[in-house]
Amino acid sequence: MTEYDVIVIGAGPVGENVADRVVRGGLTAAIVEAELVGGECSYWACMPTKALLRDAAALRAARRLPGAAAAITGDLDPAAVFARRDRFASGWKDDGQVAWLDQVGISLVRGHGRLAGTRTVTVTADSGDVVTLTARHAVVLATGTSASVPAVPGLADAGAWTNREAVSATRAPERLAIIGGGVVGSEMATAFSALGSSVTLIARDGVLPNVEPYASEHVLAALRDAGVDVLIGGSPTSVSRDAAGTVHIALADGGVVEADEVLVATGRTPNSADLGLDRVGLTPGTWLTVDDTLRVLDASGEPLGDGWLYAAGDINRRALLTHQGKYQARAVGDVIVARATGAAVEDAPWGRHTPTADLRAVPQVVFTEPEIASVGHTVASAERAGLKVRSVEYDLGAVAGAALHADGYAGRASILIDDEGDRIVGFTAVGPDVAELLHAATIAITAEVPLDRLWHAVPAYPTVSEVWLRLLETAGL
Ligand SMILES: Cc1cc2nc3c(=O)[nH]c(=O)nc-3n(C[C@H](O)[C@H](O)[C@H](O)COP(=O)(O)OP(=O)(O)OC[C@H]3O[C@@H](n4cnc5c(N)ncnc54)[C@H](O)[C@@H]3O)c2cc1C
Ligand SMILES: NC(=O)c1ccc[n+]([C@@H]2O[C@H](COP(=O)([O-])OP(=O)(O)OC[C@H]3O[C@@H](n4cnc5c(N)ncnc54)[C@H](O)[C@@H]3O)[C@@H](O)[C@H]2O)c1
């Protein structure tokens, strides 16, 4: 079969979900995958990184409670951590996900997909065989991103790790240098220092520069307490690996970092260089620009052709997060079905077919020690957006539930209240186990709950969530 209602290129979490929604809506779908069904997220990103972090987090949690700490008789077992990580990466085999595609009725076409023209995709298999697929309704690009490696002289030839090598490592190197203090760099510094590496984090723009400064300060202090050498402002100028295998990273300030491995964690680049974009009038290698229902826009800002091409997930750069990409996937799958069947398209803000939360309320947990949970604006992003906000902060350690949760609990939380004073437009918390605080904030922001109604949402005593009451009291309620 070479004709389908919808063709999806890329079987990461986003492509899989687009195809699933389309098939649930009664259309046929083929999904094209060049590597493993499940994408970057399943094998080299979300789940395996969190598996590398989880044991050390549990150990730290137990050590904060004297009775539990007394039961700890040994140290972290890196081999057991790596073995559990292997399970969470499914041994880098996609049989389980392929079986799921089969079960839900999505056709898998293995190979490299390229646009060949309107609604036409060619797929080149590893054998070199090429098949041409045509779509009756739509083609969806969900090809994700790869690690971006900066043009630092020598870096490309030094055998540098990207997230793929770090996430699939079988042992912790004695000395690990990490270039980039963003989310990947900070999480991997947390993981590998706990697994026994001596870590140097080269953080040109600081540690986690996009979160509230107080949250990043907590993580910076904890990294340094854990023995990580954090070089704020460090900027690599050249990299080389000597005959003994040691990597030498020269920095702009004249310093040199020596390590056994170097991990590049300096952001992502779109997987669009070899996607046939030029065949449909788009520019290869670029992020794809989309409209409110994620139709790809041409150079004049209009949906390409009759609107047959969509882009969802990392590739459209709206939010480089799995949950947000899957949310886009649900909207795209459903809108394709609506347009194909003549049903109403709900494309107003917050309409079923418009992933409005991408622009207003993107939740994220950074799984460092301590964790950072955030959604919506930070003070800086609100300023950039021209919003007038009031920030209200509270010491999480002063909340009864937090004190009970762990001895010496240190953390902080804040809400941003918009200038009219009756809605929350941002939330951040930093502290042990704050991840599960996040969804309450996501609901408050997405539902635009007025503060005088939020006042009636009473947090249970004694939980860490009581910080909500304290924040509202501090705000003057
Ligand atoms: C180290 C790391 C940790 C992360 N941790 C988290 C986390 O904890 N939580 C979170 O929400 N997000 C996390 N992310 C981000 C998350 O991985 C991405 O947002 C997510 O993978 C995007 O999904 P996607 O389907 O758009 O792309 P991908 O997962 O990248 O999947 C794209 C798929 O398309 C395939 N493909 C590409 N080009 C072609 C082609 N031409 N033909 C055929 N197939 C093609 C690829 O092989 C791949 O399988 C992390 C990222 C990194 C790097
Ligand atoms: N827990 C999570 O949700 C999670 C975890 C990991 C990754 N992610 C996602 O993956 C994406 C990629 O993460 P990332 O950490 O690679 O990117 P990032 O954009 O978060 O951080 C990259 C960092 O690299 C630095 N940098 C860039 N170029 C540099 C250079 N030439 N020299 C030195 N430093 C340089 C920048 O200062 C920046 O802080 C993120 O956008 C994030 O959304 C999410």
Automatic annotation (TrEMBL):
UniProt KW keywords: FAD, Flavoprotein, NAD, Nucleotide-binding
Pfam families per UniProt: Pyr_redox_2 (PF07992), Pyr_redox_dim (PF02852)
A GO term for molecular function: dihydrolipoyl dehydrogenase (NADH) activity
Residues covered by the Pyridine nucleotide-disulphide oxidoreductase dimerisation domain: 362-468
Cofactor: FAD
Cofactor remark: Binds 1 FAD per subunit.
PANTHER family xref list: DIHYDROLIPOYL DEHYDROGENASE, MITOCHONDRIAL, DISULFIDE OXIDOREDUCTASE
Protein name (record): NAD(P)/FAD-dependent oxidoreductase
